[in-house]
Amino acid sequence: MAAPTSSNRKVLGRLSLPERNFVAEALRTETVGGVLLLVAAIAALIWANTPIKESYESVRDFHIGPGSLGLDLSLQHWAADGLLAIFFFVAGIELKRELVAGDLRDPKAAALPVIAALCGMAVPALVYTLVNTVGGGSTDGWAVPTATDIAFALAVLAVIGTSLPSALRAFLLTLAVVDDLFAIMIIAIFFTNDLNFAALGGAVLGLARRRGPRPRGLLAAAPQGSTRLVHLRSAGPGHLGPDVQQRRPRHHRRCRHGPDAALPQGGGRAALPR
Q1: pLDDT for 266 beyond 50
Q2: Which residues does the annotated region (Disordered) include (predicted)?
Q3: Alpha helices of the chain — where are they, by DSSP H?
């Protein structure tokens, strides 16, 4: 894909048609998207750990949206509940294609990445718990090493995936998606203070209705989707990840000794931007 040659034009002026086509084609390329995500994450990590980190926090906590609709949310909230929902939708579509018509349509082939994902969750959690138990540390963060950040996993896969066999790509995609889904379930069950099982049951019933005849058109499907979202929202599961300050497991044991006992909050460690 060769970049079009351009003549002199105004700064921030309208691109010509060949240049617009070039930019659109580049943005559709998975490799470009993966590189942009990794570069943005590195830039945010550096920004959040510099003397001007207050500016990062102010941007992160900036609220925008119609307050009358209850959508006056922070940019962090929009990214976590809005953009990530679209991301999981796209990842789910690709995974479904692999399970229906791709390399994972054989149940035996699909079982292998699922087993690998479960083992990839259990082993890090056991190692974390064992090390902290022997060292006298706190085991409250046992769920943290179980999660595979699917966004970064797929970004790396997009960068290097062009040279990988399709079967290996499908395996890694399934492993990342299944690992992340089970990690979300762990967070929702163990790191939520008030879990409304009645609301969760309503969401499950809404999903079960999809096994029957499905409505056609947006207006017909919107009520079912809205009902499931309302029930999930009312259920109250943690959705961003375990926050050691706000969400603790129900069997919490406060750390009073160990190598981290004398450290202040986040003492000496780079804070990952959220």
Answers
A1: no
A2: 233-274
A3: 17-28, 30-48, 53-60, 75-78, 84-101, 107-134, 150-160, 166-190, 197-208, 218-235
